[in-house]
Structures are given as C-alpha cells and as structure tokens.
Specification:
The structure holds two protein chains of two kinds. By secondary structure, chain A is of the alpha+beta class. Chain A has helices at about 5-20, 30-40, 45-55, 65-70, 100-105, 235-245, and strands spanning about 75-80, 95-100, 125-130, 135-140, 155-160, 170-175, 175-185, 185-195, 195-200, 215, 220-225, 225-235. Chain A starts with 6 loop residues before the first helix and ends with a helix. The radius of gyration of chain B is 18 Å and the shape is globular. Classes of the chains: A alpha+beta, B mainly alpha.
C-alpha cells in the first residue's frame, strides 16, 4: 500500500479484521470441559480409564474451518480416538420395551414415523426411556437389504427430544472411520461410515452413561423439528439418506 | 445505547449468579458459562497461537483451569475478562513452549465474507488489501502488543475489561495500547 493509513483508517481496519476473522468454529467445549471435570471426580472402570485421554479430548476431526463444520450438530459431540477396541460388553440399553401407543404418549408430539419406505414400516420392537430427555427407539430385524450390524439388529432408529444445548450423544471415531456433513432434506446431519466407532449417551450433567457405551456401525444423525434422530444400519450413505428422509 | 448498557448489566448479573453456583460445584452453571464464552475464548486463543486446532485445546484447558481457580475468583469481579486472562496466559505459555511464532495463514484467517455491503469492487479490494497488510503486521508484534490491540479492536473489549484481562489499571491500558499501536505502525512501515 503506497499511502500510510491514518489513525482512523488503521483503527477501522483493525475492527474490520475482527469482523472478517475466521476463528475456530466453536465446538461444544462445554461437553469436553464437563467430561474432564467429571473425570477428576469420578472413578472409571479400568478399560475406560485407559481410553479416557483419547475419549475426553475434543478434537476437530479435520483441520480448517470448513472441515470443522463437518462435526457441528447440536446435541452431538464427535471425538477422534487413535484406535477403537471393543468394550467388555456390547450393551444395547434402550430403556424399557413398550408398544407404539405407549411410545406415543411418552414423546409429545408423536415420534416421527417412516412413510413410503418399502423396508422401514412398522418396527419389530419399540423401546423408550421415561427419565431425562424423551427417548424412543425403533428396532428393525435383519432382512434383505438390511444386514445385521454390530448389535445383531438390522437397523436402529432412536429419537431424542430435549434441550440440544448440551451434548446428549458422544462418539469416539477411529482413523478407519469417515465422517462427513450431510443434509437430510434441508436438515443438517452427520454421516459416519467405515470402521465401527464408540457410541454413548450422556446424562444431564454431561457424564458418560457407561451402561450405554458400545460399538456402533454406519450411523446417520440428523435433526428434524427439534428432534435429534439417529439411524444405525449397515447401509451406504445414499440409502441411509433415503431412509432418513422417510421419517416425518 | 441505554438498552445496550442494560443488556450488559443484566448479563453481568447472570454471570455473577452462575459463578456463585459454579463455586458451589454446580456443573450446569459452569457449563452455561462455558457456552457463553467459548467463542470469545477460542478467538482469543487463536489470535495468540495462530492455530485453530490449538486454540480449541487452549480454550478447553483454560476453562478447566478456570473452574479449579474459582476459589480465587474475586467476588464482584467480571467473569469474562478474568477468563480471558487465563486463556491468554495458557495460549502464550503453550506457544512459548513450542518456541514458534503464530502461523496464521492469511488467506484462511481473513476469508469470512462480509455481512456488510461494499461501495464497489475497488473499495472491497482496497479494504481486503488493508486487512491483509495490518493482519500481517499484527502477527509480527510481540504477544503483549498483539493482545492489547486485539482486545480493543478485534474482540471489542471495553477499557475496563481490558484492565481486568491484562491485570493492569485502566490508565495503564491506555498507555499500553498507545505504545502497541505505535509499534504496529512501525511494522506496517517496514
């Protein structure tokens, strides 16, 4: 620049920098801080303890502002872990088994239901949690086009309704898994594919509910009408998006 | 103007209440403080480290340290500048330990599209050139100078907040800012 900046121009330029600066896409630091603070207070199981340094550090999956946005989904935090090994038991703790009608009374308005998908009709089993955030899970048995995943089920669709200002779901993703942002219609989502990843729920204080921790297969998370939905099924991304779009 | 002042006062009162609860061990209250200030904490760390990934780690570490330091938090003091002081110290220490200068990529750091309209493509080009020049000069300043300028103009802290964040009197803020701006001008002229 040939002409020196006046005082006013320099100050205006500095303020302009503040408006244009691309600073870190703020992840859910609250979840990571809570986890670390909780980690100081609470004893962990031995295998969990060994995993903790990797699990409890929030790391953006890939560098750069655009890439960082891949993991932004309210209510969900994704951790990169150096390796994934199976926890001592594969818990599938979905709450209590209920009928569709009861699930409808527990989650107001009604849980989103699939419409128009040839495979995803009435679920084979329905589970619900009555405490904390309203949570309803649909379980589908394996069938043609729906091979069994790590849990032995064909597909699992869980819906959570509650405040998404804090992390409800955590995921520990190893180097063999790919994570990308997707749109389900116009709703934001995250698609995780490849190597199985850790999955767990958090309680209202942000602590890991250890009984829910297990390995999960290909997973799509998305939000619709204030509900956080999670589809776990051994299908490809395109098929997962088709299934997700049918839930209304 | 009055509305803005009332908003600040209301926010300050909320902060005071959250801090009081957090000091009693209320994790939800501290989580609320983290959500409130995680963005400015990450920006502060980024301005010092020049690394987005490192800024997030610094911010998270600072929040954890701040929680454990709440017992030493002065009653009645504002939380935000107190937190930023911890963030800045953490970022400076980490960068000194790594013995390197900030490594901000200008094209990455300043590519946020403007929310404001511009007069013309020429005006936009000149503004962009100025930002790049000043940002480059800012990155070559000492941490202390870059921090005081960034607090004032980039993060838009008040002088009172700057005093708290820097741990100096309000009058010292003015003299430090004046000296830092003079050094920034020198670097720009080089």
């Amino acid at each position: 620049m040939s002409d020196p900046l006046s005082d006013a121009e320099l100050e205006a330029t500095l303020r302009d920098i503040g408006r244009h600066l691309v600073t870190p896409v703020t992840p859910n630091l609250a979840a990571g801080v809570r986890a670390r603070l909780a980690g100081r207070r609470e004893p962990r199981r031995p295998w969990m303890f060994a995993l903790a340094p990797a699990l409890l550090t929030v790391v953006v999956l890939v560098g750069g502002a655009t890439a960082a946005e891949l993991v932004r989904l309210r209510g969900v935090d994704v951790f990169r872990v150096p390796a994934v090994s199976a926890p001592p038991r594969q818990a599938l703790d979905l709450g209590e088994r209920v009928t569709l009608a009861i699930a409808g009374t527990l989650m107001q308005p009604q849980p989103l239901r699939t419409s128009g998908d040839p495979v995803f009709g009435t679920p084979d089993d329905v589970y619900a949690r009555r405490q904390g955030n309203a949570q309803v899970s649909f379980v589908y048995a394996p069938r043609p086009g729906l091979p069994p995943g790590p849990t032995g089920h064909g597909a699992l669709v869980t819906q959570l309704r509650g405040s998404l200002d804090r992390s409800l779901i955590g995921k520990g993703v190893g180097p063999g898994a790919r994570v990308e942002s997707v749109l389900v219609g116009d709703a934001p989502g995250i698609w995780i594919e490849g190597e199985a990843h850790f999955f767990f729920y958090r309680d209202s204080a942000g602590n890991i509910l250890q009984e829910t921790l297990r390995l999960a297969g290909n997973t799509l998370l998305w939000q619709r009408d204030g509900v956080l939905l999670r589809l776990e099924a051994q299908v490809d991304r395109q098929r997962a998006l088709e299934i997700a779009s049918s839930f209304r | 103007m009055q509305d803005a002042r009332e908003d600040r006062q209301a926010r300050r009162a909320e902060d005071d209440a959250l801090v009081a609860r957090a000091r009693q061990g209320d994790g939800d209250a501290y989580g609320e403080l983290v959500i409130r200030y995680q963005a400015i904490a990450a920006r502060t760390a980024f301005l010092i480290t020049g690394s987005q990934a490192e800024a997030e780690e610094v911010a998270q570490d600072a929040f954890v340290k701040a929680f454990h330091a709440l017992g030493r938090f002065r009653d009645g003091a504002p939380f935000r500048p107190w937190l930023l002081r911890i963030v800045a110290n953490e970022a400076i220490n980490r960068r000194k330990a790594a013995a390197r200068r900030p490594t901000v990529e200008l094209t990455d750091a300043l590519d946020r599209p403007s929310d404001e309209g511009v007069d013309s493509p020429e005006a936009a080009a000149i503004a962009s050139e100025r930002r790049a020049q000043v940002w480059g000069a800012l990155a070559r300043l000492r941490d202390e100078d870059r921090l005081v300028i960034s607090y004032r103009y980039v993060l838009d802290l008040s002088e009172a907040e700057m005093g708290e964040a820097l741990g100096v009197a309000r009058g010292t803020v003015k003299s430090r800012l004046s000296r830092a701006m003079a050094r920034l001008r020198e670097v720009i002229r080089e």
